[in-house]
Amino acid sequence: MNSTVHDSLPCGIEYAALPLPKRHVVSFCLRVFAGAVDDPEEKLGLAKLVGETIDKGTERHTGRELSDAYDAIGASIDIGVGRETTTISCTVLPDHFERAVELTAEMLRTPTFPQEMFSVNVDLAQQELIALQDDPQSLADKIITRQSYGSVLGRYPLGEEATLARIKQDDLSEFWHNYYCGGRTIFSVAGAVEVSCATDTIEKHFAGFGQAEKQGRSPHPFDFNASATHQTKDLEQQQISLCWPGAEVTHSDFPAQRVMLGILSGGMSGRLFTEVREKQGLVYWVGAWNDTPRGGSLIFLGASTTPQRCDKTYATLLREVDRLADDVTQMELDRAITGILAARETRGDATRSQCMELINDLFFFGRPIPAEEKDEKIKAVGIGDIRSFFAKYPRDRISVVTLGPRALGQSDES
Questions:
Q1: CA-CA distance, 75 to 28, in Å (whole number)?
Q2: Would the N or C end of the chain have less CB density within 10 A of its end CB?
Q3: Residue 76 to residues 68, 178, 206, Cα–Cα distance (Å)
Q4: Is the pTM here over 0.85, yes or no?
Q5: What is the mean pLDDT of residues 232-258?
Q6: Residue 414 lies in a domain
Q7: Which of 206, 237, 257 is the last residue of a domain?
Q8: How many CB atoms within 10 Å of residue 73?
Q9: Which domain holds residue 180?
Q10: 3-state secondary structure of 153
């Protein structure tokens, strides 16, 4: 069994390292506590622009030179900005691990945010917002997220047309100065690297990276808003999204929630697919999932149907959830558990996946959680746990969004 090391460095970075000596690559991931929740209300989209522009130039290299430097060592790097954090991940050959960390540290510590690239990224963000209007499913997701989570946790990372127009180049530098530092950074590494090497490398290149005291770790207030709204849009399909509070990741009920979602939406054998799509032919697509900011959780159901079948589809979605507590079978339970465990064994065994699992553990739990511990909790879920879950997390407070020609109650079918 591989031993994971967890510690905090003098530079302020909290890290976890999982040595996998038989692997041929090393993956590392940084997560900075700087996301859409930190945007000024009048400048939504700022955190996203910082993440999109931070690799476009440093005090030593232009954006092209930085990209070429990564390419020269065969490193693949991704940057993503979400609700609460900005994540940078990289996979590289072991011989080039330190060079990849050095380049990443340079990017995070000495960005210049060139005016030309800033302007380009603002234009691209505006174009993405326009394109969103032609993606009904994503648009419905954006609307229900804002409605359910409120004005802070419900922010769309890309921002809004009006708020993007207010952002100036200097705002990027100010945001970076306020939120990018060792005390707001967690770091994970997995693969063919020695722990001592990883520790020394991180500290060497991030020493003096802003304030070292831990910051930004407290969850943002979670206040669920139960309401129903409709947005009229000229579409051939009708989007339905609904959600209600569930168990947060760190709660003992979360494994039962994962299994419950597997029963509802675990591939073509999931209840929603078989009952709503295959048997009744009500939808083009249907699914169930959860969204889990720190300190909260929402269970989501979504479907795309015809305007005429909107009411019937909505009622069927609720019926399938309601009856699950009453007639769940052992076969369904076993199938859902097997699917979750198999996903970990197939996708989760990749070096990059294990690295991302580590960073998620630090983000939610503040410590690495052994895979065996997680698997045992999934295996322990029984029919009684599914039933008690619905008693603890009933859908008595629900948020609903419909997007399309007709609001609920106006369909031809009932």
A1: 11
A2: N
A3: 11, 28, 20
A4: yes
A5: 96
A6: no
A7: 206
A8: 16
A9: 5-206
A10: coil
Q: What is the rounded CA–CA span in Å between residue 199 and residue 7?
A: 9
Of 174, 140, 189, the C-alpha closest to 50 is 174
Q: Quickly tell me which residue has 């991931």 as its tokens.
A: 29
Number of CB atoms found within 10 A of residue 207's CB? 15
pLDDT digits (tens, 9 = 90+) for 331-374: 999 999 999 999 887 775 689 999 999 999 999 999 999 999 99
Q: What gap in Å lies between CA 411 and CA 414, rounded to an integer?
A: 7
Sheet holding 238-245, edge to edge: 228-232, 399-404, 238-245, 298-305, 283-291
State the alpha helices, DSSP H only, in 207-309.
254-265, 271
Are 188 and 298 within one domain?
A: no
- CA 86/CA 220 separation, integer angstroms: 16
Sign of CA dihedral 18, 22, 23, 25: positive
What's the distance, CA 147 to chain centroid? 18
Q: Which of 206, 240, 272 lies at the terminal end of a domain, its last residue?
A: 206
Q: 124 and 59 share a domain?
A: yes
Segment (H or E) for 231: strand 228-232
Long-range contacts of 150-155 (CB under 8 A, 24+ apart): 150/223, 150/225, 151/41, 152/37, 152/220, 152/221, 153/37, 153/83, 153/220, 153/221, 153/222, 153/293, 153/296, 155/36, 155/37, 155/39, 155/44, 155/83
348-368 per-residue burial string, b: 16 or more CB within 10 A, e: under 16: eeebbbbbbbbbbbbbbeeeb
Task: Bin 380: left if φ > 0, else alpha if -120 < ψ < 50, else beta.
Answer: alpha
| Tokens matching residue 237 | 């399909």
